[in-house]
Amino acid sequence: MLYIGIDDTDAIGGMCTTYLMTEVVRIIEKHGLSVIGYPRLVRLNPSVPWKTRGNAALSIAAGIGSGKKWVCGEYGGVAFSARETGESPSPEIERKIIEDVTALVETRARFEEENTNPGVVFLRKRPDYRFYIRGVREILSKEEVEREIAAMDGIWKGYKNGRGIIGAFCAIAWRPYRCTYEILAYRKEENWGTERRIDEASVKAMDARFRSTFNNYDYENSRIAIAPHSPCPILFGIRATVPDELIDAMRTIKPGEEIERWCIFLTNQATDDHIVKKRIGDCRPGNCVRIRGRVCSEPEVIRGGHVIFRVRDRSGEIDCTIYEPSKEFTIIGRKLATGDVVEVFGAVREIPRTVNVEKLHVVEAKAVRNKQANPQCPVCGKRMKSMGRDAGFVCKRCHVKKGRDEAVWDWIERKSLEGWYEPAVCSRRHLSKPVKLLPNR
Ligand SMILES: [Zn+2]
User: How many A from CA of 411 to the centre of ligand 1?
Assistant: First the structure.
């Protein structure tokens, strides 16, 4: 088998590596080979400092196909299929494909964009899975990846600072132990950069009808979530837990223009693969973590409407921040109280040191008490006076004292707060598993 990985050919407002991958499909077919399995769209560490967007890399396998065959895309009105398994192509065909793909990257990648550092990798087998795990959770060095590719007798080409080969390599290393699917529909080149006119009602109807799809429509902000806002070639993308309904779901969308091509990708989106369970004391900047502890400060609303609360476990304490674009999510944050048990998912930021919350599980929200009145004096029956905050009560006449806990309390039940919360659809990370997909929520 020949595995091809490509990364970082696009930048803000530029090309799109997934589009380039549909061109790679054409090259594979032109040389008489098949695409083996689905093309793969792999999201890597969202905290990598030099990546401003979704940090996506792509990979595909090419071979002499056999086994099951299914339609996985279309360009210019002609469908293309993927095959279940494949044999290695001849060295001659392999060489031609490598030449063509390299030429494609060199002609179509956006080299002029400052933060675009394209890379392409060719291998005859998949690298160890742990390289993917490190690529999605840590920062790998280009040098280590180069050594590894060389040791595997692979071919690579990195352009500009060459970091693109890291993603290209990690995308080949991924195995779909946890996975979802996305169908991407593309625009005709003449429409790139123009405003999209997707019919909103058709998106809502699709969302209601196809239960395996998710993140289609942002009901909180009344916004279509399937279409990007950049001038890239993508018209829209629909995500689902299984591939079965994706083609039908795509056909129900009224896109407002012609779909020039489409392709189904196997992806690691919505898997939480970037998240590592940690003790608070072990959280480092750049980590994406899942921590569990007790809320140890009353939530505070800061400028911009963001909400901060502090969480403690046996190993330490850390601030957690819920950002404003998700209004309903910040409202939940404001309802937290000292003593609540929570699980927080998010990325650890360095300055100020805080976890940017991308998912919140309120495990336990105990009833809180609210003082309704001072206690009555057991001797004369009059209301007692407070001796100050936390100091208890005294009867001015009889000099009888009572502790603070003996006030007349109102108990506010908060059990209904327990559950899972997440930002509005448009503010979610590609890698974050939506609450809808959690098995034991
Ligand atoms: Zn008294």
Answer: 26
Ligand 1 geometric centre to CA of 405 (Å): 18
Q: How far apart are CA 20 and CA 136, in angstroms?
A: 22
Domain count for the chain: 4
Please indicate, yes or no, whether residues 240 and 297 belong to a single structural domain of this protein.
Answer: no
Cα 376 to ligand 1 centroid, rounded to whole Å: 8
SS (H, E, C) 56-76: EEEEEEEEEEEEEEEEEEEEC
Q: Which residues contact 207 (CB under 8 A, 6 or more apart)?
A: 213, 216, 217
Cβ atoms 117, 158 nearer than 8 A: yes
Does the global pTM surpass 0.85? yes
403 alpha carbon – ligand 1 mean position (Å): 15
- Name the one residue in this structure whose structure tokens are 């429509």: 217
385 alpha carbon to ligand 1 midpoint, in Å?
10
Dihedral pair phi/psi, residue 316, rounded to 5°: 165, -170
Measured CA to CA, the distance from residue 6 to residue 333 in angstroms comes to 40
d(CA 409, ligand 1 centre) in Å: 20
| Residue tagged 């309390």 (tokens) | 409
Identify whether residues 285 and 259 lie together within a single domain.
no
Strands 276-277 and 119-123: unpaired
Nearest CA to 406 out of 394, 419, 424, 421 is that of: 394
Q: pLDDT tens digits for the chain (441 residues)?
A: 999 999 977 654 456 889 999 999 999 999 999 999 999 999 999 887 766 557 889 999 999 999 999 999 999 889 999 999 999 999 999 999 999 999 999 888 777 777 788 899 999 999 999 999 999 999 899 999 999 999 999 999 998 888 899 999 999 999 999 999 999 999 999 999 899 999 999 999 999 999 999 999 999 999 999 999 888 899 999 999 999 999 999 999 999 999 999 999 999 999 999 999 999 999 999 899 999 999 999 999 999 899 999 999 999 999 999 998 888 999 999 999 999 999 999 999 988 899 999 999 999 999 988 888 999 999 999 999 999 878 899 999 999 999 988 889 999 999 999 999 999 999 999 999 999 999 865
CATH number at residue 124: 3.30.70.2200
Claim to verify: residue 283 and residue 325 sit in the same structural domain: yes
Domain of 218, in residue numbers: 180-267
List, as ranges, residues with CB under 5 A of the ion ligand 1.
Answer: 377, 379-380, 395, 397-398
Q: Which of 378, 408, 409 is nearest to 394 (CA)?
A: 378
Whether 70 and 49 share a structural domain: yes
